[in-house]
Structures are given as C-alpha cells and as structure tokens.
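Two entries, shown back to back:
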Amino acid sequence: METPLLEEDKPNTTASGNTGSGLLLLRRVSVESKKLWKIAGPAIFTMICQYSLGAITQAFIGHVGTLELAAFSVANSVVAGFGYGLMLGMGSALETLCGQAFGAGKFTMLGIYMQRSWLILLCTALLLVPIYVFSAPILILMGQTVEIADAAGRFATWMLPQLFAYALNFPIQKFLQAQRKVMVMACVAAIVLVVHVLISWLVIFKLGWGLIGAAVSLNFSWWINIFGQSMYIFISKSGGAWTGFSLQAFADLWGFIKLSLASAVMLCLQFWYLMIIITITGHLTNPLVPVDALSICMSINGWDAMIGLGFNAAISVRVSNELGSRNPQAAKFAVAVVSATSLSIGVLCMILVLTTRFNFPVLFTSNIEVMKEVSKLALLLGATVLLNSLQPVLSGVAIGAGWQALIAYINIGCYYFVGLPAGIVLGFKFNFGAEGIWGGMIGGIVLQTMILVAITLYTDWNKEASEAENRIRKWGGSVDEN
C-alpha cells in the first residue's frame, strides 16, 4: 500500500535547472525536518525527563556523602543499568514490528505486539531478581570495595519495583512511538519529573532516609509514569491500536522472543559498555574519587545521550513507517536529514561541555578533589557527547529496518574485542587511570560508528522495503483488521 503524497510532499514542477533542483531539495529537507521534529522533539523531552529521575536523585545523594554517591552510582549504573539496558533492548523489538505494521495500516496488531512484549519482559524481570538481591557479593567479585558494594547492594534490593516498571514501560513507549503519539509521553513525563523532585527532596533531605529514600522516590516516579501512559491507552483506545487484552498475545511467542533477544543484545552491549567504566575504575588505587568523578561525567553523558535516543526513536519510526508503507526512498532521505540534524546538535553540545567543564561539577558534589577530576575528564566527555549525536541515529536506522542481529555482532567486536581491552591496557598498563580506561573505550565507539556509516551508505532500500513486507505478512497475517 503506497502512502499518498501530501500536497507539501509533491515535487515542484515549475522549477527548472539547478535552481529548481536546489529549491526542491530544500523543500524536501524542510518537509522531512518537520516530520522529524514532530517525533524527535517530544521524544527527546520524554527521554530527558525520564533520565533526569535518576540524575536528579544522584544530585541529591551527592550532597549526602561521598560513600552514598559512590554506592548510588555503582548500583544505578551497574545493577539498575543492567536491568534498564536489557528491558529497553528487548522492548525495542516493538520499534521494528509496531513501526512497520503501523506503516502498512495493520493497526490492531500493535496492541497484540505490546501484550506479547509485556509477557516476555515481565518473565525476564523475574529472572533478574536474584541479580538485584545478591548484587553486593556480585559487585565484590567484580572488584568493588566491600564498603561500596554493601551500600550499593542494599540500595539495589530496594530498587526491585523499578525493574518491573521497566518491563511495562518500554513496550508502552514503543507502542505509542510507532503511532507518533509522542506528545502524550512528553506530558506524562513532565508531570512525573516535577513530582519526583518534590518526593526526592522530602524523603532524602527532610526525612533523612538517604539511599533508601532515593530508591523510594525512583520507584514511585516510574510507576506514576506507567499509570499515566496506560490510562491514556485504555481510555482512548489509541486510535484503534488497543482493542483490549487478547489470548493472541500468547501466539508466536518463540519467534517474538528471538527478535526481542536480538534487540536486547544489540542495545545492551551499547548501554553496558560505558557503564563498565565505573566497575573497572573501582579497581584503581583509592577508587572513591575517580568513581565519583566518572559517575558525574556519566550522568552528564546520559543526559546528552537522551537527545541521541530521541533522534534514535524518531528515525526508527520514520524508517519503519516508510518501509512498511513501501516507500524506500523516503526512508533513505529521512536517514540523511536526521543524521545531519543530530550531528549539528552534537557539535553544539560538545562545545557546551568543554566551555563549562570547571562549573558543572558543583551541581553534583561539594568535594574539591572530585570537582578537579571531573574537569580533567571533561575532554573525554566532550568527545563522547559528539559521538552520541550520530551513533544512536545509526542504531535507530538498524532498529527501524530490523538489522538487530547484525548490529549485535558488530557491537561485540568493536566494544568488547577492541575498545574494552584498549581501555584496560591504557588505564592500568600505562597508568593513565580513569582517563585511559575511558579513552580506550571511546576508540571502540569510533570504530562501531564508522562501520554503521558504511552499512547505511551501501544499503539497498528497495530490498529493505521487501523485507518489511515479508515481516508484516509473517507477524500480522493471522489478525483481522477493522
């Protein structure tokens, strides 16, 4: 089914020569940019709000004590980060399936897909419970000090409700994103963020609950987020995409699990990669200061990464919708426009980080040594911020087209066979410390980004449109449409 051209999408037949071609290109870029920002703007805002839940809590904890900050950072980055990455990755299978089904007009399949994803992610959350409960000894085995590991373990146990919130949240997000209902997500996220600031201040400072208070505020805020989005879906029926709970959610589960696992491996390898820095840094002599400094940098990097993830969501929706609608050239053009836009923003963000490197650490800590270490690491943070602008976009292209398995292999090779060993060698063998660990791992990101650029440039988009049609027939053929 070809998507009919809107009036704004039709070619300008009155223009001629190079001038006409240039005006046509500018008009196409303008039209695509509007489509991009209608998705990316609210998606970026939503991502920033949701990420800020943990970052704001970290800022509160940073003013409680150095040990508390280190424990929160390790638990949130390593333990909760493990669960976040796995749940987000498995939920991202819906970006391919829901996006292409929506583009093909098979709306009722979106609700079925979401329910299947809920089943799989909730079961996965149950399997992850022991990791949270026994996180203290696990962290000790990974090289963390007993003091940090014990405090982080207590915090992680209190964070179990958040784990199950992840299992419901990410399928809901992908369900709404595929339909471009991102403004709903943004409104809910804004309300939750305001509530979270008030709750965190109350339980951490006024009631003096410390790390336990941090866990309570995070759990509460994530479940409010799920409640708000779910009420919208259940009440509005989401334009026919939600038709109620169905036994069809239990059909074809194995095939769905395989695609979810491929998506999980692809994204988890990316999320865990930089989180590993915190764990490795714990092996350095006197690790409290470098761990705290890195956690602050990772917090800033995480905020910036939310911009990249917003563009990731936008391009995955654009590519999957256009491929599902059998418009391969439109998908190709969307990739070019989103990449150029995101890269431009990445340059600006890098400049901002470098020019404020002596100022932003005070927002997270009052320890002078930690502030100095953060300022030294800011150069590497700037480089990572720049990479954040392009790498997530290319990953979003992969999700929209359904290349998860291929990208998973690329991530393993670039991150864990190149970047991680390089970071360990530079950090410990050549005594560059945290800077060496992070610098080596940046090399892996650069290599992976170069490979993704090459794959995207040489993609046969007509073939990808055919693959999307086959995928829709395989997953949606048994469902009657309204």
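entry 2 starts here
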Amino acid sequence: MNPPFGTKLKGIDMVFLKKGIDLANHAVYSLHKTSTRDHILKKAKEWGVECEVVAELRYNLDKSYKFHKKQSLDIAVDFLRFEKKPRSE
C-alpha cells in the first residue's frame, strides 16, 4: 500500500486493508503512518485479527506532484503484520 493512501480519501485505506485480510489465508503486511497506530490497532481488534508492529521506519516521499510543497518529506511509518486468529471448531 502507498503510505498516504488514506489521506486523500479518508478511510479508504482501511477498506482496502480489511478486504486484504478477508482474502488472505494467514497474514497481511501493510505500511501505515505511525501517527495512526492506535486507530489501526483498535480496528484490528474490532476485526478479530492480531496486529503486530514489525518495524518502525522512515519513509521518504519525494516530490512527485505540483501540489507538493517540499522536495521530499520524511514520514514515520509502521510496518504492520495482521494475522487471522485460528477459527474454533
């Protein structure tokens, strides 16, 4: 996923993530802004999946559109692992 994916269309990144989890056999890995960590962990709990912060990273986003004001921007991101909990028989 593109880290600022949910910034332009609020919440669409979570719809995308949920669908990925639904389709996955076991686990999904995703990048999200660190500032949204609490929200992401809350959603994972609501969805009944385990979520682990695998790494805290710095993502360098180079200027690629006219509306970008800076040449590049360093964004704190979490590399997350979402794991489906085994179903009880």
